[in-house]
Design brief:
about 240 residues, alpha/beta, two-stranded antiparallel ribbon
Length: about 240
C-alpha cells in the first residue's frame, strides 16, 4: 500500500481513506513479531505536539497516522496536498471490528471507566454477529502491568486503547512488543460513545465539520480544550503550513 504523507505544522499525517486505514491495520496484524502504533490525529494533538518535541517524535514515529479531525483535512489542503478523507478513530474501530467477521483478526478493548469497554463490545457483537472481540479491560488500573494477564490470555492481534492522548500511545509503545500485540490504535473517548454512555454528533453535523461544536454543547467543561481549535487555524494560516 502506498503510504503517501503530508505534514501539518510539522506533524506527519498519511493520506489514506478510512477503508485503506482498516486494510493497513489488518495487514500489520498478521505479524506478531512486530508492534505498530496507529495514531488517530486531531487538532488538539497537533497543537500539543507542536510545542513538545517528545510528543512530536512520538507521532512522527508511528507506523500510521490518520486524520481524525476535519481540521487536519482542511489544513492539509492549504498545501495543495489535501487528504482525501477523514478517518475518525471511532469509525476506524467500528470498521475494523466489522472486518474481523471475515478476517478473523482478534480485537481487544483497553480503556475507559469500568464496564464501558465491555458494554461497547457487547453492542458491537450484536451489531456485527461473529465479530472477533476477544476481550476487554477498563482503563482505571493503578499499575501499568495490571491488564497484562488479561491481554496475554486473549492474545489479540489488534489493541484499541482508550486512555487519552498521549497516555494511550505511550502505553502501547512501552508494552506492545512485550505483550506480543502487533497493532495498537489510540481511540480516545470512542468506547464511551460505542457503549451508549455518550451520544455522537448527528451525521449532518459530522459532514459539515461541526462535531467539535456538538461535543462542546454536550460537554461545556471542554471549552478550555476547544480553545486549541482557533489557535490551530491561526497557526496554520500564518505559518503557511510549512513542513
Amino acid at each position: 500500500m502506498n503510504l503517501k504523507k503530508t505534514f501539518v505544522l510539522g506533524i506527519k499525517v498519511h493520506d489514506l481513506t478510512k477503508s485503506e486505514v482498516v486494510e493497513r491495520i489488518n495487514e500489520l496484524a498478521r505479524d506478531k513479531s512486530k508492534s505498530n502504533m496507529i495514531v488517530t490525529l486531531g487538532t488538539e494533538m497537533i497543537m500539543a505536539a507542536k510545542n513538545d518535541s517528545s510528543l512530536k517524535e512520538l507521532i512522527n514515529g508511528a507506523e500510521l497516522v490518520c486524520a481524525d479531525g476535519i481540521g487536519v483535512v482542511w489544513a492539509s489542503g492549504l498545501r495543495g496536498e489535501k487528504i482525501r478523507e477523514r478517518a475518525a478513530g471511532i469509525e476506524v474501530l467500528e470498521e475494523t471490528v466489522k472486518s474481523s467477521v471475515t478476517s478473523g483478526r482478534k480485537i481487544f478493548f483497553l480503556g475507559a471507566s469500568p464496564g464501558i469497554a465491555e458494554k461497547a463490545a457487547e453492542r458491537l457483537r450484536l451489531k456485527y454477529p461473529g465479530c472477533n472481540i476477544c476481550g476487554t479491560y477498563h482503563g482505571y488500573f493503578k499499575d501499568d502491568s495490571e491488564p497484562f494477564e488479561h491481554i496475554r490470555k486473549a492474545s489479540p492481534d489488534i489493541l484499541f486503547i482508550a486512555l487519552g492522548f498521549p497516555k494511550q500511545e505511550k502505553w502501547y509503545l512501552k508494552y506492545g512488543s512485550e505483550l506480543g500485540v502487533p497493532v495498537g490504535v489510540g481511540v480516545g473517548g470512542s468506547f464511551d460513545v460505542l457503549s451508549g454512555k455518550l451520544d455522537r454528533a448527528p451525521e449532518w453535523m459530522r459532514k459539515m465539520g461541526l462535531e467539535w461544536f456538538y461535543r462542546l454543547l454536550r460537554e461545556p467543561s471542554r471549552w478550555k480544550r476547544m480553545l486549541s481549535l482557533p489557535l490551530f487555524v491561526l497557526e496554520v494560516i500564518f505559518s503557511g503550513n510549512k513542513k
